[in-house]
Amino acid sequence: MNSLVSASTNAARPLRELLREHRRNADLTLEGLAERSGVSDRTISDIERGISLGPQRRTMLALADALALEGSERDDFLASARSGRKNAVPAARAVDIEPHRLTDFTGRESEILGVVAHLAPSGGDDEPAAPVVLCGAPGVGKTSIAIEALHRCSAGHPTRLFVDLGGLDPVPLTPLQVLHSLLRQLGSEPDAAKSLGEATAAWRAAVAATPVAVLLDDAANEAQIRPVLTSDGRSAVVITSRRTLAGLEGARRLTVGPLPRGESVEFLRRIILPAQAENGDLDELAGFCDDLPLALRIAGNRLASQPTWTVEDFVRRLRSEERRLSALVAGDLGLASTFTLSYDHLAEPSRRLFRRLSLLDGGSFDPRLASAVDDLDADGAQDLLDGLAELGLVEAMRGDRYRLHDLLRLYAASRLREEEAAEMISAQRRRVRDWLLATTIAAGARFEPRPPHAAPADGILTFPSNEEARGWLMTEAEHWFSAYQAAAARGDHATVLLVADSLHWFSDLWLGWGRWHELFTTSAASARALDDPSQQARHLGYLAWAQLAEKFDPAAARATADAALDAARRADDGVESGWANFYLAWSLLHLGDAAAAQTYADASVADFARAGDAQGELQARSIRAGIRSRSDPEASIGEHRDLVAFLARAGDDLPHNIRGVTETNAHTVIASALLALRRFEDAVAAASDALQVGAPGEFPSGQAAAHRHRGMAELALGRADAARSDLTAALRLGAGARADDWLDEVRAALHSIPE
User: Which SMART domains is this protein grouped with (predicted)?
Assistant: First the structure.
């Protein structure tokens, strides 16, 4: 027997479909119908999911009255419950059309080879085949992979059997029914095996002599599978399921995901007409299909059925998110209906969380963020997310991250609009965004020189350490930045400024993000909208920093800093005037005008001194010292000694970390200049001063440089042992601080020291 045989049902329209249709026609949510009828929302949910097949008559009458059903609609509705009570156990399934091997099957070579390797192990005839579970989201092509793999194993297993286990049916096949179907396909009469034990014995006897290949499609649970597995492992068994079937012993699992983009494009080329691809981007089309094989199949079939369409014609329809799911329908193939099979199996709390996940703008999320969309605690959200992942509606990623793919996000959004009131959706979206921005402010505050001690609002995440705050800001940037942009779009300028202010210290620690210029452009626009010149000056200063440090555009930074200085003068704000002059000095230094840079640096120092802002004055003195260091080592030494004296005078007006880093680097610059002037004993003393600031390794880049300068000076003075010790420490600290510009020089110097 070389064909695949299928078992399926031909049932009348069930009660669950009628109830759902009438409820939606009445524009009622589950909760709304529960309130109107007096029937609990859990009972209604159980009926709609097919768990309750024959509710009591008083329940049905209450629902019929609440739905205002009359005439034949009411009679059919009540009769469906009576039918369910009579048929709580499904009848034996009839033989249906066998699934066919796709002639245009594309890609999936690694997955197929993985399945084949487990079905036909290469270790010898005595090595048993392991059952393979193919699990994954709806529409990823699990069954197609299984069929293709079984055909490649046909030499070892010429007899192939197939059973549709009805995993998403109201009542899936029982283990006994699964065995009866398999026995029937082998030509046996299964009715003689009345019990599961008898059927299992008959099955094992039937396949003992002639091993078979079995595809158990759409499994609901492990119990359906276990009786099929034989102890000798000679038969090949492949199971597909939207669930992972984690309790199945000895199985090999393969989670099937979307196709790689190249295979998606090739798949489309094999379906559509060549002329259709001449106008349009197949890569863009594959992207709108989320590289999901079912979506690609639907898109390709729709194009192939309309020869006058081009790829661009169809892509134009898909660019609208509101139309995308409705456009991805071809005949009886539809993405939404496929997703609905999984959605209908969820209890209402899981459905609600799934729907509301569409409120998130980012691609991936953790349980803490998921809890914010549905007013849950993180543990409760994680339990529900695991259930959604089990049915393939979200993807479980590494750690505690999850992802909602684009097409499923659109489906979740459509269910949200259908089942929840527009006012609630708007309010919940605002709550999620407010939560994100409040948490961003709390995380950013960790990096301020003197973090605030006030406890964050209830429900906002707390961060015990800077490292945890940094991790959250970097991981969730896609979410909080989208919330930030939404706040700007709705004119919530005060919140925009709060967020930008909270992040400006952190921004210097994450230059690799690459979007600080966007963030501070937005905050500067909000300050302008509020017509607050002091705020304008501050946020234009932030923008000038981003243009220098992130965009490397000193000309743009100079123009921005000029505007900041004008705003600061209008506000009569000495602190912001100091910062504007600071950014002008920095910009002009990069533009090669050291004299003008010096003038603005002097003005910046004076502004901060008059305003009594020690932190600002420290920055201004630092850049002024840096400007002088470029042309005159003696002047650099004097300027940096003045900087050290300023640090001593400022004392506790400066936070420990800022004071420590600046003092370390000032002594290091002095040591470097003295080394260049060949004043080796003075260089050793200056480097030693740098190393006395803070604990060893507390300021690694500055301390690494100090060890380097002192080691080089000691080497010049003929102190081999001391030089070796310092240069070795410089290598160790410098590697961690990425001091690549002088590491090779230090290695060469170490190599030159005689043993």
Answer: HTH_XRE
Phi-psi region of 396 (alpha: psi -120 to 50; beta: other; left: phi over 0): beta
Mean pLDDT across the stretch 300-320? 92
Tokens of 397: 């990623």
Domain containing 321 equals 261-331
Residue 335: what residue type?
L
Please check whether residue 648 lies inside any domain of the structure. no
d(CA 93, CA 190): 13
CATH number of the domain residue 355 falls in: 1.10.10.10
Task: Over range 398-412, report the average pLDDT.
Answer: 91
| Tens-place pLDDT, residues 146-170 | 988 888 876 666 788 999 998 887 7
For the chain, what is the mean pLDDT?
86
pLDDT digits (tens, 9 = 90+) for 27-40: 888 777 877 877 77
CATH number of the domain that 231 lies in?
A: 3.40.50.300
- Asked if the model's pLDDT at residue 240 lies above 70, the reply is yes
Task: Please state, in angstroms and rounded to a whole number, the distance separating the CA atoms of residues 637 and 635.
Answer: 5
Q: Which of 340, 378, 371 is nearest to 138 (CA)?
A: 340
* Angle ∠(203,209,213) on CA atoms, nearest 5: 65
Domain boundary pick from 491, 510, 529: 510
Encode 492-515 in three state secondary structure. Answer: CHHHHHHHHHHHHHHHCCCHHHCC
